[in-house]
Amino acid sequence: MKKTNVTITVYGAEQICASCVGAPGSKDTYEWLQAAIGRKYIDDPIQYEYIDMNNPPNIEKHQKFVERMIEEDLFYPLVIVNDDIVAEGIPRLKSIYQALDKHGVALQA
Questions:
Q1: Nearest residue to 85 via CA among 69, 101, 71
Q2: How many domains does the chain have?
Q3: Are 25 and 32 a contacting pair, CB within 8 Å?
Q4: For 36-65, how does the pLDDT look when each residue is reduced to its tens digit (9 = 90+)?
């Protein structure tokens, strides 16, 4: 399978989303995703980034996305694979794995 570059971005905040009470925090979800994906996929071509929606970096793409999250009342953590939203609120690995498969990320041997 060809080597591909995939970016997984998790947008979140310190405070847990009001609709996600009882769920892990955004940062915990970010770390959990890295571990889960690393067990199933060869994650060399995967780049991970965590964006604090209350303090986004001075990068236009991230600032615009945080604005969109607020305007559209999207739940967080929000998981994006490349430019596609694959999970909102409490993420499901199945939808994230489907996105990675679509982008050609190789499975562990």
A1: 69
A2: 1
A3: no
A4: 999 999 988 899 999 999 999 999 999 999
Query: Which three-class secondary structure string do you get for 23-79?
Result: CCCHHHHHHHHHHHHHHHECCCCEEEEEEECCCCCCCHHHHHHHHHHHHCCCCCCEE
Structure tokens at 88: 């909102």
Backbone angles phi, psi at 45, to 5 degrees: -80, 5
Tokens 């770390």 locate to 31
CA distance 52 to 66: 9
State which amino acid sits at residue 109.
A
pTM of the model: 0.89
Report residue 65 as tokens.
């996305």
The length of the chain in residues reads: 109
Domain range enclosing 79? 6-102
Gap between the Cα atoms of 33 and 62, Å rounded: 20
Residue 108 in any domain: the answer is no
- Whether residue 70 is contained in a domain is answered as yes
